[in-house]
Amino acid sequence: MPRLQIEGVNKHFGSFTALNDIWLDIPAGKLLCLLGPSGCGKTTILRIIAGLESPDSGKVLLDGNDLAILPPHRRDIGMVFQSHALFPHLSVAENISYGLRITGISKSERLERVDELLETIRLPDAGGKRINQLSGGELQRVSIARALARQPRIFLLDEPTSALDANLRETMQIELRRLQQSLNITTVVVTHDQSEAMTLADLIVVMQAGTIEQIGPPMEIYEKPRTEFVANFIGATNMLNCLWDGNCAVLGNNKLNIKSIADSSLTRGDPVKVSIRPERVELLAANRGRKPDSNQLTGTVEFVRNIGNLVEIHTRCENTSIAHTYSPQNLSTELNLREGDAVIVHLPAEHCLLYSK
Amino acid sequence: MKKTDSEFRSGPIPGVFATVALGLFFFVPFAIMLTFSFYHKIPGGLYEPAFEVDNYLRFISPFFTQILLISTGLCSLASILALFIGFILTYFMSRMNKRGRTLWLILLVSLLSLSEVIIGFSWSILFSRTAGIGGWMYTLGLLDAPRAFAPGFGALLTALTFICVPFIVLVMFPPLTRLPKEWVESARMLGATPLRAVITVVVPSVRPALIAAFILAFIYSLGSYVLPIMLGKPRHWTISVHITDQALYQANIPFASALSVFLIVTALSLIALISKLQNRFT
Amino acid sequence: MFRIRNIFLGLILIIFVAPIVVVVGVSFNARKQLLFPPQGFSFRWYSEAALESDWLSAVGTSFILALGAASVALVLAFLLALYCWRRLGWQSRILRGMGLLPFMLPPVVSALGFLVFWSSIGGYGQLYAAVISHGVFLVTLPMVMILIGLDSIDRNLIDAARVCGAGRSEVYLTVILPIVRPFMIFGFFFAFVLSFNEYIISFMLIGFTHETLPVKIFNSLRYGYTPVMAVVSTFIVLLTVGGMGLIARFGDLPRLFGAWETVEK
Asked: If residue B46 lies in a helix (H) or strand (E), which one and from where to where?
């Protein structure tokens, strides 16, 4: 399986900058997720790899060879479209064998390959069906089979599960990941769904407004989001507006120590933001006489909800609402809190992240 | 570097070919007609190249004023009647299920395609003494003696309205079917009667389409040649009849061309008016 | 409200169907008289129409004219639609306008235009002149239909085909043409039916050399009524309603007409 590299790609549509100096290196056989809100340019990257758009400048390299001279139909790439884009005038089997027919593969070979693929996508009897007889999940599977029929060098998927309902979506994500791993094919997936990205990816690329915000393995992106945007986009977080005090952040009258501070250009009085994941927030009983320690704030519980596998508690302190979540299975560690209870909120320094501006 | 275009579409060749074909066989004829309208008519059926406006000067005559009055009067009356019927019909169609809509559309499109000769022929039967309403009314005792209603103004107006209604529906169908059903429903919830809801909600929101439908039906009826001949008396002949009459029977191509040019200019300015109104409303 | 609605619809239906019913009815009269309701019942005039060679030749002329004109219209409409598809510039707007104009202008002026054109270059009275003129004149509806067909192609389908290895001509042959084909067939049907029914252009161009069916009916009316006219009219009515019924059966007629407005803009 080849290695895919994107080097300094720029793309403009009129005066709109779709991509601004994009560099990516996707190791052979790995799955990379392009993650970002709609309009961030992630689909444009996919289309540039496929050859459906040409970059204004920059290169796409496959095992070191520039793809620019190849039109889309010579690139040997498999692509799954968001709207599945199956041909309505062809049957399932004809859709899957479309690329083989174009390439001039013999009929017997085609039939064999189609059967094999129908087996892979677990629809062995669907070959003769029309496209409009398929359900959403089946459509998606057939379009994956069509993309893989020619054993492409690169596999591209544009929002592969966005048209499916929630339950089916998770099943498809797991199936897709297992398929990709068994084929060991270099893959790029575009998604706006962070849990899809976390499920599928070896590497996640978070994008915003045509630029790359952060590249890294899923857990690194989750644990150490480099920018405020990434922290907000991946998972839920508490984003607290504070002021910089020279060596710690200040929220109201409370000092918040931060373990790692990357930004050295901060000066006293600068507005900063402190981010902490809800599951890293700790709540302590506000017993009589107990004084808040460092990184601890007193507050009042204003909202409690239990959604079965998760309990979420919002506490108001210093005019800010701080969310805290825990699994109800770990009952021993938690207090039985209700709306209106006084509580102490602990924001451990090692889990607080600081963002300037 | 070879550019791959993101938008897949045809090259310019089909456009060039279509332009040449339409230009040669549709626009050149109009250009020739325009030229002929300035030619000089020689008695005896021929004409000679000239540049004179005599053919246009003939418009300033009681004869032509008469044609213009009867044409515009008859056709605008037919268009208004057709607009009224067509609007109500389309509104009801827009609230039918798909099957009902399809059946009505088949009927209307068939009538729209049906030769005017046949429509004229059927109406002339319907207005005849022996096989038409004149005879039936006598049988029912409504008339003292069987009589024919055609040729006559009423018969011609009926038939013109008849051919305009499908045209109106064709124009009104898209905007009326796209109108959210909830609009009328919410007007009803706010206390409007069905009729009031239609007048206060539906009519204003499709006003540009109503105007367009009226104008297009007007042009359409103005172009009818067969119906005035078959169902009208000579004094009901519209401008289309006179164009044909001048061209084929009076052998006066220059004057026929001038009349045609007048009709084209009228039609085009009305069409321009529609697009202007539509731009203003949307 | 529902009562008023049904009365209105019923009344309109009666008025719309009445001419058809009357024409069909009088064609069954036993005697050579114009009577409705028909007196007696006979197929006599049908066999007479089938035996009269000048009526048959009119049917033949109309068929040849309609076939030729629909083919010309289809080719022109396809080229126009193909060029205008996915183009927004002034060229495409002009071409769309050119395609819509024949439908919007009063047919009589187009007829006169064709008359002066063909008598200037020779060809007046020839069937081919009528075929080309009808083809140009009837380009609008096929164009609108093919445009609807082209617009219904999801751009991703084309991208998918290209990524699957299809070059330009393969995209046309394996994706675009198969999807647009039904719309082309309906467009052809439409142009055929309209050409078969058309009177004024046929009359002006070939009225004195090749009589088409509508021209023949019209001419015969001047010499008085015969039930054979009602018979051939019934034939045209059946052809027209049948053709439109077929279009509705296999094509989504409400959708075809619903999209009319978007193309017009």
From this structure: strand B46-48
Considering the domain architecture, whether residues A240 and A94 belong to the same structural domain is answered as no
Same domain, A60 and A135: yes
Question: pLDDT tens-digit profile of A106-142?
Answer: 999 999 999 999 998 888 888 999 998 999 889 999 9
Task: Report the run of H or E that residue A284 belongs to, with start and end.
Answer: strand A282-285
**Domain finish residue from A232, A249, A281:** A232
Q: Kindly state whether residues A80 and A144 are assigned to the same domain.
A: yes
In a domain, C14, yes or no: no
Q: Do B6 and A54 touch (CB under 8 A)?
A: yes
Show the tokens assigned to A193: 């769904």
Residues in C touching B85 (Cβ below 8 Å): 12
Task: Read off the tokens for A77.
Answer: 């790439």
Identify the burial level of A158 via C-beta atoms within 10 angstroms of its C-beta, where 0-12 means exposed, 13-18 middle and 19 or more buried: buried
Quote the tokens at residue C140: 């609008």
| Residue C211 phi, psi dihedral angles, 5° rounding | -80, 125
Instruction: Report how far residue C196's alpha carbon sits from residue C66's, in angstroms, rounded to the nearest whole number.
Output: 5
Query: Does B1 reach chain A within 8 Å, measured CB to CB?
Result: yes
Tell me the shortest Cα–Cα distance from C64 to chain B, in angstroms.
17
How many residues are present in chain A? 357
**Phi, psi of B49, deg, nearest 5:** -55, 135
Containing structural domain, residue C109: 52-264
Q: Which residues contact A32 (CB under 8 A, 6 or more apart)?
A: A24, A26, A187, A188, A189, A201, A202, A203, A204, A205
Q: Does C22 touch chain A (CB under 8 A)?
A: no
Structural domain boundaries, residue B265: 61-281
List chain A residues with CB under 8 Å of B3: 54
Q: What does B218-274 look like in DSSP terms, one character per residue?
A: HHHHHT--HHHHHHS-GGG--HHHHHHIIIIIS--HHHHHHHHHHHHHHHHHHHHHH
- Do residues A88 and A220 share a domain? yes
For B218-246, what is each residue's pLDDT tens digit? 998 998 999 999 898 888 888 999 999 88
Lookup: tokens for B98: 């798909």
What is the count of structural domains for chain A? 2
Interface ipTM > 0.85: yes
Interface test with A, best of B3, B4, B7, B9 (most A CBs within 10 A): B4
Give the number of other CB atoms < 10 A from CB of residue B147. 15
CA distance A56 to chain B (A): 10
Note if the bond before B151 is cis, omega within 30 degrees: yes
Q: Of C16, C23, C136, which is closest to B121 when you measure between CB atoms? A: C23
Residues from chain B that touch A72, judged by Cβ atoms under 8 A, are: 4
B60 touches chain A (CB under 8 A): no
Rg (CA), chain B: 24
Assign residue B84 the CATH number of its domain. 1.10.3720.10
Residues A215 and A241 occupy one common structural domain: no
Residue C129 covered by a domain: yes
What pLDDT digit, counting tens, does each position of A293-350 carry? 778 888 888 998 888 888 888 999 888 888 988 887 766 556 778 888 888 888 888 8
Q: Based on the domain organization, do A190 and A243 belong to the same domain?
A: no
Chain A positions touching B6 (Cβ under 8 A) are 47, 52-54
Task: Record the pTM.
Answer: 0.84
Minimum distance, in Å, between the CA of residue A53 and any CA atom of chain B: 5
Peptide bond into C182 cis (omega under 30): no
Q: Is C89 part of the contact surface with chain B (CB cutoff 8 Å)?
A: no
- The enclosing domain of C188 has a CATH number of 1.10.3720.10
> What's A224's DSSP letter?
S
Q: Is residue C137 part of a domain?
A: yes
Q: Which of chain B's residues have a Cβ under 8 Å away from the Cβ of A69?
A: 1-2
Cross-strand bridge partners of residue A345: A283, A297
